[in-house]
Amino acid sequence: MTTKRQQIVDAIVDRLKTIIPGKVFTLDSGSYTCQSSIIDVYPWRKTAFSAAELPAIRLEDADADVEPGASGQHEHKLHLSLEGAVLKSTTAAAARAMVSDVLAAIGSDVKWGGLARWTDINSHSIDLEQAGDIISGFQILITVTYRTPLWRM
Amino acid sequence: MGFDFIADSRTIINEFANCDVFVGIDSVRGIFGEPSKMVSTFDLSVGTTAPTVSLEMACVVDLGIDSGIIVSIRRDGMSSSDDYAVAGPPVHDGAGLAVVTLTEAP
Question: CB burial class (10 A; 0-12, 13-18, 19+) of residue A149?
Fold first, then answer.
């Protein structure tokens, strides 16, 4: 049986994969048009990326805090880290654009099709590394709150 | 018998040079290498390269090669050149050669 946690991670991966230039997300504040493209999204990828695989996002759902919820349920606060990298960006502007696009993708439905009660952004950060290529990266930390029957995840 | 660093480094360059290094219209011969390197942003690792070019120290001084300078490198057998930025101060090897670390030109 697929857990709700698995369904939420799948929904996040599927949503992030839709980010392409021109993609429009509808937010409470109005429509948002994406600037970035993402080749793929990789849950829990530990191996290094090649330049040809960028821009890419890796995702980890390591920890969840659990509390008693209403009506005999457990409320889970699932903490996720979304990290991405862009190649050959001469400034960090590409990373900022990707952060903006990812936030819009999340914000277009913070309940993930009814799976979750809410999604919070905890932080967003960017970084730039330079060797033979310039690689700009980002990290977004979010928390997805959802409820399950007791002793289910 | 003592070392003649200038003559020895020139011999090494003459023997192993595999590229022309241009700064503006001036050029010298150099030894280009492009070993792989792993860089990380947050927990995400990306395989890239760490290109270097070795030159006679005297040429580095003559051409004014230092951090931030843009150099063009045309590898032997190639018809076009690639631009790189010098990533840091040239490192003298103590024997007449300098290793210049390169990065993607802005």
Answer: exposed
Which residues of chain B make contact with A128, given a CB cutoff of 8 A? 41
Rounded Cα–Cα distance for residues B55 and B57 (Å)? 6
DSSP state of A49: B
pLDDT in tens, chain B (106 residues): 566 777 778 888 888 999 999 999 999 999 999 999 999 999 999 999 989 999 999 999 999 999 999 999 999 999 999 999 998 899 998 888 999 999 888 7
At a CB cut-off of 8 Å and minimum separation 6, what does B103 contact? A130, A131, A132, A134, B51, B84, B85, B86, B87
CA proximity to A84, closest of A150, A8, A153, A19: A19
Q: The complex's ipTM?
A: 0.82
CA B10 vs CA A103, A140, B2, B34: distances in Å: 56, 52, 16, 22
What average pLDDT score do residues A25-35 get? 96
Q: Which of A90, A132, A137 sits opposite B44 (nearest CB)?
A: A137
What is the residue whose two structure tokens read 């109005």?
A30
The answer to whether residue A46 scores a pLDDT higher than 70 is yes
Element (H, E) at B11: helix B5-16
CA B78/CA A59 separation, integer angstroms: 41
- List phi, psi (to 5°) of B59: -70, -40
Chain A: residue nearest B83 by CA? A132
C-alpha A150: how far from its chain's center? 27
